[in-house]
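Review form for a predicted model. The reviewer records the input and the model, then writes brief findings.
Reviewer: anonymous (R2)
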Amino acid sequence: MVLLTTAGTAEASQGSKSSPRPANRFGIAAGGALHTLSPRDLARTLDGVRAVGATRIRVDLNWALIQQRGRNSYRWTSFDRVVRAARARGLHVLAAILYTPHWAQPQGGSGVTPPVNLDDYAAFAQKAAAHYRRLGVEAYEIWNEPNIVDFWAPGPNPARYTQMLKLAAAAIKHVDPAATVVSAGLSPYGAYGSADAQHMNPINFLEQMYANGARGSLDAIGWHPYHYPYGLGYSVSSAWSQMSATSPSARSVMIANGDAATKIWATEFGAPTGTSSRSLTEAAQAQLVTLAYTKLKAWRWAGPGFFHSYRDRGLGTSVEDGFGLVRADWSKKPSYRAYELRAKKSAGSR
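Model under review:
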């Protein structure tokens, strides 16, 4: 997850445009540390995710760790533990494939630098899809927030990201034709037209993805519609508004490119509580949960929404500490109850 900035080569066959099982839109983006949890804390987390009414969970498949020892070495065990535990609870897994191992990085690069050879990423995606198909994984997200330097160093390159997407989608579909391929969730960055060497507005980035041939290599568009601490009201700089309400919007770009039937998956969204200047009150976070899922259910073009996250990281003194539905001590926030009520209402209305 990244802080909101205010301001502003083979083709894969296109899969089904409808949301995969299950029908409801309630997910949790659990963050990248699930594989580090103790068995007790992992069970407690996943039991809570299921109990609150979520039917989907977004987890990281950390390429840099799984192939840390080299191109021909795979260390699946800690990630298998997470996937098996999630599936045992009936949770449908969205696996985000990201972070480059040291051997695939350019000189001076890091885990958020794309690999020198994008075929290495595609080869790993294919191996991962073959491995996790047997464990019941249905959906894969290709990287994370490539429109900002925090996850695509040294700065966004939509043409190269699209090449990564096309190669990885074809590789995944080769071993699992039914898999859902979701493009990387795009980070908020100002209003349309906002860009510098290290950031690009997500609508502009999406335009360039289509210009470089992304259509046909994705089953859903990933989006991260954060706009804390301002809520979900209209703003030209709001990634929530930019899904469909601004001009242009993600939806208008998709329609202009013949992709009207494709859904937008909010693979991360939410807002923190705590004491930072950008945190919400716990009551306001709960209101955001209620309104967000009400809107997502009403929009025919919206796929699942993955709330970030289940549990707070800390005491709320940093903006990154307080995104959970439960506090660090596992006590439930008002947002837990709000999520639970919306999920139950949604399940009852199907």
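Findings: The radius of gyration is 19 Å.
Further findings: Confidence is low (pLDDT under 50) at residues 1-23.
Recommendation: see findings above.
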